[in-house]
Design a protein that fits this description.
Chain lengths: ~140, ~130
């Protein structure tokens, strides 16, 4: 282990000296998901805010019409998962950068992971169980 | 980290500030995403609950916030592509500054008509029909 690796392991407070490629995969995921999200999110914003007339047009019937199509269900599901994982990893990086105490870092990340998991599962459930005849 | 560095690691210039803006826009968009999934989840409660909450978004203030959101997402997307070019394109680091000006240029060119079309309804509602 080089001196730089050793000081990095010490400075991150990690006792685990096993090599892991997690940070490499996380770094790569940000780039790959980012490229896909450019199309999914900018497409979503352009269609919703400009082509379809913005929030003025939005109501339950609009959502029902949209999710009647598997195409938009898959689009929204992919956008939900990629954007949430991309954002969660981004906030993980920011917490690691600025929270200096081990305890603070740990609990902030726990809060992040629990709330992100909740949002991803809730959004997935809503897309898969949407019922246009509810009420 | 364990020991605070002497002085500062922040070196200023376009490189640092584009990175700062990437973090700030990322955090803002991420928190909006939480709220957006929660409001959309109301379609599983009842059509009335969803429509009542969405109705609170149909105001000039929220319309302005929407333009801000789109501006934040657009910057984050364009600068993200620049970061990818710096990482993977052999000449990326050399042209990082020119690419930032390209990001700013494209952002302005897209946001000018984008703001017009997004705000049109609000302007008509507040000041009467546009010419």
């Amino acid at each position: 282990m080089s001196l730089a690796d050793r000081s990095l392991a010490l400075s991150t407070g990690s006792r685990n000296r096993q090599r892991s490629n997690f940070e490499l995969y996380a770094w790569l995921f940000m780039r790959v998901s980012g490229v896909v999200l450019v199309f999914l999110v900018l497409g979503h914003l352009f269609i919703m805010n400009i082509l379809d007339g913005g929030v003025q047009r939005i109501n339950f019937a609009f959502v029902a019409g949209r999710w009647a199509s598997p195409f938009w269900q898959v689009w929204d599901l992919a956008m939900l998962w990629l954007a949430m994982l991309h954002g969660t990893n981004g906030l993980r990086t920011i917490i690691n950068d600025y929270a200096e105490r081990n305890q603070t870092r740990f609990w902030l990340k726990m809060l992040l992971y629990v709330s992100s998991a909740f949002i991803i599962l809730l959004g997935t459930l809503v897309i898969f169980t949407f019922d246009p005849t509810i009420g | 980290m364990a020991t605070a560095p002497v002085g500062t690691l922040y070196r200023g210039g376009q490189g640092m500030w584009s990175w700062v803006a990437q973090r700030i826009t990322g955090i803002a968009v991420f928190f909006f995403l939480y709220v957006h999934v929660l409001d959309t989840a109301l379609v599983r409660v009842s059509p009335e609950a969803y429509d009542i909450v969405i109705a609170t978004y149909k105001t000039p203030i929220v319309n302005l916030l929407e333009v801000g959101l789109v501006g934040a997402v657009l910057y984050h997307a364009l600068n993200g592509l620049r970061v990818i070019a710096v990482d993977f394109w052999s000449r990326g680091p050399r042209y990082q500054r020119q690419m930032l000006w390209a990001v700013v240029g494209v952002w302005v060119v897209v946001m000018l008509p984008g703001t017009y079309y997004m705000m049109r309804h609000t302007v008509e509602a507040l000041f009467g029909a546009t010419p």
